[in-house]
Each structure stands twice: as structure tokens, then as C-alpha cells.
Amino acid sequence: MTSRLNDDFLDLLFELSDAEARFLIVGGYAVGAHGYPRATKDLDVWVEASPDNATRVIAALEAFNAPIGDLGAADLATPGVGFMMGRPPRRIDILTKIAGLEFERAWPRRVTMTFGHAAYPVISISDLILNKRAAGRAQDLADAEVLEKIRDGLS
Which one of 55, 80, 92, 155 is CB 3.0 to 4.6 Å from 73, fit for a cystine? Predict the structure, then answer.
């Protein structure tokens, strides 16, 4: 499936890939990529919180000219620390932890989907459902219900 992302989002994904960072597209764009397009105010990118990967992510953010200030690799190697830039609907959230999942378990189950002219890693539909259920907000639970129908071939 091909999903539309703005040029800033595509540029960041390119830089993350070019830096060989381990990341997964999660959140609303992942929901859309799995077959339920809906409005979203940001691009959520979940990165592996390890020292080596954090160094790669920082390099990608620098190449993207992100306003990282004093954000360093040690910060992004810490689960639960994140980084946000921009304003909705062009905001980008870099996450080192998401509800209900560990990166090491989700990474092997990732799927690759095309955004723009390149393919990028996206959280699997089953892991996205787990994440949405664990997050528990009304929008997340509604997303999980629709995603379950898509996964089970009921939509």
C-alpha cells in the first residue's frame, strides 16, 4: 500500500534510513498504511532505544536539520524519552517507548510499506492493535476495532 506523506516527513524517513537507524512508523500514519486512513496531526516514529541506534537517530536528525538543541544520543537511548518538532499537522514525534510493546519484539514483525518513492518499516497490524489497546484512549480503541476487522478480513 502507498500512503501520502508530506515532504518533511519523507525527508526525515529518508535520513533515518540513510543513517541505518532502526525505527518503525506507528500512530495514525501506521493506521492509514494498514488500510484505515484517517486524519492525524503528526508522524509518530518509534526508534529503538539503544546507544548505537540513538547515535544513528541523532545523525539523521542533524542531517534533517532538526532543532535538537542539547538532545543527545544518551537521551534517545533511554526508553520513555522522546523528541517533538514542528506543529500539527506537520509535527513529528520521535518516540523511544510506546504502550504495550517492546521494540525488540515488534521489530522482527515489522512490515515494509511504500511512502513516496521508497519503502519504510511500519509496525505490524497485530502489534499496532496491541499498542492501541494498551494506550486506551477513545481514538486508540476505535482504531483498534477497525484494525481488527481489517486484519481478520471483515471489512
Answer: 55
